[in-house]
Amino acid sequence: MTLVNNLRILILDDEKLVRDELCDFLSDPNFQIFKAGSPSEAFQIMDRSEIDIAIVDVNLPQMSGLDVLEKMKQDYSEIEVIMISGYSEMDSVIHSMRLGASDFFTKPFRLRDVENAIERTKKFVHLNKSLQEVKRNYSIISEEFNKALGYEIIGDSRHMKELINLIGKVAKAENTSVLITGESGTGKELVARAIHYLSNRKEKCFYAVNCSAIPESLFESEFFGHTKGAFTGAVDTKTGWFEAANKGTLFLDEIGDMQLNLQSKFLRVLEDRKIRKVGSNIEIPFDTRIIAATNQNLKELNITKGFRLDLYHRISSFIIHLEPLRNRREDIPLLLDYFVKYFNRIMGKNINEIDEAVIRRLLDYDFPGNVRELKNMVERAIIVCDRNKLRLSHFQLQELKGKNHTNYNLSEEIFDLELIERNCIKKALERCNNNKSKAADLLNITWQSLNRRIKKYKIEN
C-alpha cells in the first residue's frame, strides 16, 4: 500500500466482521489502529488517545453516525472523518459531507475503496497538523513574549505566517546556527528571542551583543572573559559572553559590522566550541546556540573583503529573511491597533478610536524605519493626543516616501472626502498594477463598488 505513515486510525462500526476486516487490511507497523463497536466506546478512545482519522459507519447503536460526526467536529475538530454508507443512503452521505466529513466509501466495500479514501484524506491530516503547529507556535510565542517582554509578534500577512512557521521549526533544532537578515527595524532581535523561547534552551540565558559596538581592544575580554590581573585594570575575573550564555543563546546583532581581523578569532572559537580567558591557559568548553543578525548582504561584503565567507557559512546554517513593512502593508492596521493598545496600557490612556484618514495615510507611507518607526510614531501620537481619538494632526511625518506616492504633511488635515477617496483609489490601482480585483481587496470594498467609484471620479486605468 502507498498509505501515509504514522497515522492513528479509529474504526467505529457495530459489525465486528467489518471492524476486523478493516483492522487486518490496515495492519502495518506504521499504523496504530483503534476499534470501537459503539459511539460511547469511540468517545472514550478519543478522550484517551490522539486520533488522526476516524472511519465511522452511518448506522450505529446509541446515536447515528451523523450525530457522531457532528459531535466529533465540535469536540475533536482535528480529526478527519471518513463515513461508511450503504448504497441506499446517499442522502446521508451528502449530509455528512456538509457536516465536515472528508470522504466516504460504500458497503459492501472493496479494500481498494478503503485505501483510496484514506489516501485522499491524508492531505487533510497533514494540512490540519501544519495549521495546528502554526497556531500552537503563534500562541506560545505570544504568551512567552507577553510574559517576558510585554509585546508580541504581530501580523496576518502571508510572510508573517511563514515566518512563525519557520521560527517554530528551527527552534526545535536547538544546535543549528541561525542568520536573520532584514532592514533595520524589522524585528530581528524579536525573532531571535522567539527562537530561544520556543527551544529547550528557554530556561537558560539569552544574551544579546551589538557587534558594531565592540572595540578591537576589548573583543577577547568581552567574548571570552579574562582572569584577575590579566592586564592593567583587570581587578577581577570576568565571565565572557560565550560562558555567560552557556546552555542558552548568544545573539550577535549587526554581525556584518564585526572587524575583519576579529572574524578569524571568532570563527576559530565557533569551530572548536572552546574558549580561553585572557590571561589563562585553560580551555573552557561551551554549549551555546549562535543566532546572528544583519541588515547587510554578507555575500556582497565578502566580495569587497568585508566579511569572511567561511564565517558566513558557519553562522548561516538556517537563514530567515524579514520583509520590510512596505512589502506587507496589510499588517500595518494590525500593528497600529496593537501599538495603540500597548501605549494606552503603558501611559494609562483610553484612546479607543482611530480616524480612517490615519490608516489610509499610513498605508501610503514606505516606512524606511519599518516596524520600529511605526511604533515610535504611535508612541508620540499617543503622548500628544488629549482625547480618545487619534487624528492625522497627532502624527509627525514630513513626507510620504514611495515610488508612486504624493508627498504629504501629516500635520495638515484634509477634509475633502471625495478628494481623499479619489486619491486612495488611484494609489490602490497603481499599487496593484491596475488589477481591479486586487485593488478592491486592498481597499476592503467589492469589485462592483470600486468600478462605480472609478466611473464616478472618471479615473483612467
UniProtKB/TrEMBL annotation:
Residue list for modification 4-aspartylphosphate: 57
PROSITE patterns found in the cross-reference section: RESPONSE_REGULATORY, SIGMA54_INTERACT_1, SIGMA54_INTERACT_2, SIGMA54_INTERACT_3, SIGMA54_INTERACT_4
Pfam families: AAA_lid_14 (PF25601), HTH_8 (PF02954), Response_reg (PF00072), Sigma54_activat (PF00158)
Occurrences of domain Response regulatory (ranges): 8-122
GO terms, biological process: phosphorelay signal transduction system; regulation of DNA-templated transcription
An annotated Gene Ontology molecular function: sequence-specific DNA binding
Gene3D superfamilies according to UniProt: 1.10.8.60, 3.40.50.2300, Homeodomain-like (1.10.10.60), P-loop containing nucleotide triphosphate hydrolases (3.40.50.300)
Domain Sigma-54 factor interaction: 153-383
Keyword Protein biosynthesis: no
UniProt keywords, alphabetically: ATP-binding, DNA-binding, Nucleotide-binding, Phosphoprotein, Transcription, Transcription regulation
Annotated InterPro entries: AAA+_ATPase, AAA_lid_NorR, CheY-like_superfamily, Homeodomain-like_sf, HTH_Fis, P-loop_NTPase, Sig_transdc_resp-reg_receiver, Sigma_54_int
Domain of life: Bacteria
Record flagged with keyword DNA-binding: yes
PANTHER family listed in its UniProt record: TRANSCRIPTIONAL REGULATORY PROTEIN
Protein name: Sigma-54-dependent Fis family transcriptional regulator
